[in-house]
Fold Ribosomal RNA-processing protein 8.
Amino acid sequence: MNQSHLNKKKIANLKALLEKKKVLKAQDDQNVQTNKKHEGEKLIEKQPKKVKPNAEESNSDFNLKKKKLNQSDTKVNTNNGGTSKLQQKMRDKLAGARFRIINEKLYTSKGKESFDLMKNDPNIFEEYHKGFSFQVKSWPSNPVDIIIKRLKPRKKIVVADLGCGDAKIATELNGNPHSVHSFDLVSNNELVTACDISKVPMKNGSVDVAVFSLALMGTNWIDFIVEANRIMKLGGELIIAEVTSRVLNSDEFVLCLKRCGFELLEMDNKNKMFVFYILKKTKECSDIGKDERIKLSKNLKPCIYKRR
């Protein structure tokens, strides 16, 4: 079975899951309407009970009791907006499955293929980032926040956020006094330019800092690094935040980046989940051929979740 057939099968599975989501959504909407009707009937039938104070009760005790009683009478259980526990569980399970399928597709495809996929169906990008945002909630820290903290105190700089997601770096730093250019597969707000990260619409040597925060996702991620080199000024700073488990050998990974024209300034692996590389552009790297790029790309393994 060739790679093309596998990719088609993954896309078909993803579309099937999206169809299941639509069915559940329709059921949810119907349940919400039914519950609203029942709630209206209950509210008409139920009236707050009138309570008279006992002679031995203080006014404050009586008012507290009255408040609790009225709250109890008027409280209506909406049951998660009309969604049953079983439906909610199924919906969460489908959302998790969709995220894992899309995530695997992004890590096992070239950037151009992922860009075309998202361009044809932007909902896939939205589904992915919903799942990604859910994952972020469980992290002890978000790499983007650490990068923002690093860049914020500096004098005016031009930043390229490559694989920016919701463009949080631009939201925090743009015009303060920095200029942040944000790029990703889909533009989900006015700060983001949609593109293939291996071909960014910026001039040569125009960027002071380039950022990849969990964004080296395609099988051709080495092309993203080469593109970052192209748009960066000589002496510019490259910041890479990656999932620790992706880096097979840190020394080999650093040598790979050196071949792409970058010298390591510092590495921070104190965080159990993520590792940070801070590098400086020391030379151009337009001389790396196709075969060598494929070889270099093996220094990062795909971040794929276990099947459930």
About this structure: The first helix runs from residue 3 to 45. Residues 72-79 have pLDDT under 50 and may be disordered. The two ends are 23 Å apart (CA to CA). Strands lie at 158-162, 179-184, 192-194, 207-213, 232-243, 262-268, 274-281.
